[in-house]
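Appendix C: a fully annotated inverse folding record. The material below is reproduced so that readers can follow the format used throughout the book. The structure is listed first as tokens, followed by the designed sequence.
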């Protein structure tokens, strides 16, 4: 129960950072995708099931407050969290390289799907421009944010594991 409360709080805080704080720190007109970082991180740290749940609630939060439709982002983040859970066995706690690589790959995939669904379907065919002006800067900025945020998420996960193993939960 404590894990769900802590994860819910983290998701909410990161959503607020991504939408309210980081727009003041835009680089190249983009902000880092912090909800993608938490989805990838918990998929790697805890496996497919938790990656799926974290991804679903991150995407649902975006769907609720974006006002477009309920479900597309929830589905996308859910798939990304689940797929990252497959790499749980390759994951080492001290290794920061795998999460950064996974965030980069996931951000590329996420941005490409967003382009296809929201731009290509409206006959906006300039993927090269979108790639250079949105995908690459967001991917780099999100990777830099991962360097800081991943260590915090790792400590939170470690503390939750300790409490679970002690039986305090």
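Designed amino acids, in order:
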């Amino acid at each position: 129960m404590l894990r769900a409360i802590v994860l819910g709080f983290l998701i909410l805080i990161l959503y607020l950072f991504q939408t309210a704080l980081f727009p003041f720190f835009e680089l190249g007109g983009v902000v880092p995708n912090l909800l993608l970082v938490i989805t990838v991180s918990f998929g790697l740290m805890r496996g497919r099931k938790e990656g799926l749940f974290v991804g679903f609630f991150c995407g649902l939060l975006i769907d609720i407050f974006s006002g477009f439709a309920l479900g597309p982002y929830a589905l996308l983040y859910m798939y990304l969290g689940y797929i990252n859970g497959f790499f749980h066995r390759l994951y080492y706690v001290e290794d920061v390289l795998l999460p950064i690589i996974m965030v980069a790959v996931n951000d590329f995939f996420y941005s490409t799907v967003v382009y296809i669904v929201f731009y290509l379907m409206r006959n906006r065919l300039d993927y090269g421009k979108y790639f250079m002006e949105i995908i690459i800067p967001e991917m780099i900025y999100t990777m830099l944010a991962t360097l800081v945020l991943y260590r915090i998420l790792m400590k939170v996960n470690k503390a939750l594991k300790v409490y679970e193993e002690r039986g305090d939960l």
